[in-house]
Every structure is written in C-alpha cells, then in structure tokens.
Amino acid sequence: MDERESHTARTEDPLLTEGGFRASLRLLRRNRDFRRLFAASVISLGGDWFLFVAINGLILETTGRAIDVGLSILAQESAFFLASPWAGALADRVDRRKLMITCDLARMVICVAFLLVGPDNIWLAFPLLAILSIFAAPFDPASSAAIPNLVSAEELPTANALGGSLWGTMLAVGAALGGVVATVFGRDTAFLVDAVSFLASAALLSRIRRPFSEPREEQQEHPKTIDATIETLEYARRDHRVLSLLAVKAGFGLAAGVLALIPVFARQVFDAGDIGFGILMAARGIGALVGPFLGHRLAGPHHRRLFPVIGGALAVFGLSYMALGLAPTLWVAAIVIFTAHLGGGTQWVLSTYGLQRLVPDYIRGRVFAVDFALITLSLGVSSLVAAAIADSVGARQSAFILGGVAVAWAVTWWLLIRNVRRDRSFDDAEAPDPVDPPQEP
C-alpha cells in the first residue's frame, strides 16, 4: 500500500468502513463525555415528545380545530426565533455546558406549570409553550456547536448521525409511549415525565469534563447581540457553502408545517385518537432514525456527494407528504410518513454536519442560532398555513399542497447552488475564515 492509499484508509469515514451501528457503539463506548451528552439528549427528547403528544391532543380535543394545533407550534417556533439572536451570542460567549444546564433546570419548572392547563384554561398552554422555547433557544445551538469539541474529526460523522438518529429514536419511542401514557394514566403524567427528564439531563451534563468550546481569552471582546447576528450573516454571505446549508433548512421549514396535520390525520381523518397520533409520530421518528445513517452513507467517502444527497432527500420528503394526501388507512399513512422522514432526517443531519465541519468554533454557536432561527420561523408560519388550509379544504389537500412546496424548494435550491456544486469541493482540508475572529483589545 502506497502513502496515498494508507492515508485514505486512515481517514475513511467510520460510517462507511465499519457500518453505522458498529461505529456508533464504538464511539459511545470509548468517549465517556459524548456518551453523557447523548444520554442527556435521549432522556430530555423522550420527555419532549410525551409533552408534545399530550398538549396537542388536549388542544385538539378541547377546541376541535386544526388551526389551534398550528397556533401551538407557531407559539413555540416564533418564541424560539425571537430569542435566537441573544441565544447564539450566549452560546459563543459563556460556558456552553453551564448554559445548557441552566436551560434544563428552567424548562423543568415550566413543565410542572403545564399541570395548571385544562379545558377551562387551554389558552395557558400557548404562553407556556413559548416560554419553554425561549430556554430551548440557547440550548440547541450550544449543543450542536459543542459536539465537534467532544469528538475527533474522524468521529464527527458518527456523532452527527447519532444525534440525528437520537431525535428520531426518541420521537418514535417518546411519541408512541406518550400516546399510551396520556390515554392510560392521563396527560398530567406526561407533563411530569417531561419535567423529570430535564432534571436528569442537567445531572448528566454536569458530569461532562471535556470543554464544550475551544479556549477563549478572558478579556476577549464579544459583539453585541445585533452585531453578532450581522457578523454571522456576513460570514454566511462570504462562504456560499455555509449559506447553502442554512438556506436548505429554511426552505424545508416552509413545508415542514405539515407536522401540524399529523394529529389531525390521526384523530379526524382516521378516527384513531391519541394512540393513532402516537403511531404516526412513531413512524416519523423511525424514518428520522434511519435517515441520518443512510444519508451519511449516500454522501460517500469524505461526503463528496453531500449537496446532491441533501437536495434529493428534500424532494423525497415533499413527494411522500404529497402521497399522504392520498393514504387510505392509518397504516398506509404511517408508511408514507416513515418514507418522508427518511428524507427529512437525511437533509437535516447532513446540513448540520456540513456546518459543524465548515464553521470555526468562535462563531459556531451563532451560526447554529441563525440556522435554528430560520427553520423555526418558516416552520411556525408553515404550521399555521397548513392548519388553516386543513380547516378550510381538508387535511388531505393541505398535506398535498405542503408536500408540493417541499418539492418546489428542492428544485429551486438545487438550481441556486449550481456554483457551489461546480466550483466548491466540500472535502477541502480546512474551512475558510472569511470573518476575522475577535481580537484582544
């Protein structure tokens, strides 16, 4: 074996050489700090889906209107969007681990407050969901920005796929169990499960010893919130690869409001109640579980096919939700939703991986804050539109329209990034640094 072949063998993506499952087990076994972060996410995400099924089931049962489910999602997503500028600045300014622990403890208290929500004061759910999202706004970008500091460059694809599959796994398990628990034990139990999950997550994060950020100078100046956002957008404008990865999620969000239709299909189209809701959400989660590993494999060695796979995955998401509008039974709908989130999970995780690999640590938290802000804004508006269309002309027609939006954006995005596809190779050794990092005064 010559030197070039030897280097290729050493740097081949673990997901391709070992298989996703074995590489994942190996990473979790040998990296204690990443294992704790992963376990914390497992617990808190599972609780989140208990809450999601329970509160949206209560809202739809109380009002009977799909638009109110859309409003609940809009309350969460708009609050997340508005909080994102200062959240991203915090993720790059303070200790990310302590920030995440603080957010977990705050969300624990808020989840307990959901015990006050009932049919007579269902309006209270909307501000509580918004406050919950405000504390999620710093947590999510801090977590995504921290992962490259907890694993090696060779382990990053595996860690990224695990993170994406974790979301899908806990959606599948948490949503399915959440539907059963809400039906059998009552919705208050689901609210308490979510509260306890945040406490357990905080405890695990407190035991992580590796730094979540690269070393920073104590007297290093940080831009103010507005300046930080402007700096982040300028960074993306100068590196079209980063801009493309941010844009694909924002466009995905324009169609992803179809999520608001899942409880409508379960309860009103198929008359299957909370258990049917759990089944459809579980199908969504299984697709999102498999999609990340499949996406990394399809992207090829060193992710040279990253952008084509992202575009194709987004098209699969849209075509599948168009097919949901024609699904004759709950189980056919579950298969279609599973396929949709094979694509949705793939594009989400690969675009996140691209940002983790390209963006330097000093600005990574702010870039992810912008990333999450764009997706939450578009998702919130899309959810409201999807629910309004469902109330006006029916859930099936709404799913078909939103799926068409995803297909249209996949084609548009693919045409817009032709310069990136033609002139910029994703497997460059180092990411460019178009904005100078802050200097010591």
What this model shows, in words?
This protein has a single domain, classed as MFS general substrate transporter like domains (Growth Hormone, Chain: A, Up-down Bundle). 80% of the residues lie in helices and 0% in strands. It has 18 helices and no strands. α11 runs antiparallel to α17 and α16 (361-393) runs antiparallel to α17. Residues 1-12 and 429-441 have low confidence and may be disordered.
What's the short story on this structure?
The protein is an all-alpha fold and 441 residues long. The protein is 80% helix and 0% strand. Mean pLDDT is 80; it is low at 1-12 and 429-441.
CATH architecture: Up-down Bundle
The CATH homology group name: MFS general substrate transporter like domains
Major β-sheet, in short? none
Distance between the termini: 51 Å
Radius of gyration: 21 Å
- Name the average pLDDT: 80
Number of strands: 0
From the structure above, extract its key features:
single chain; 441 residues; mainly alpha; Growth Hormone, Chain: A; globular; disordered N terminus; disordered C terminus
Q: Which helices and strands occur, and which strands form pairs?
A:
Blueprint: H1 3-11, H2 14-17, H3 20-30, H4 32-63, H5 66-93, H6 96-113, H7 125-150, H8 156-184, H9 187-205, H10 225-238, H11 240-256, H12 262-269, H13 273-299, H14 306-324, H15 330-358, H16 361-393, H17 395-416, H18 418-423
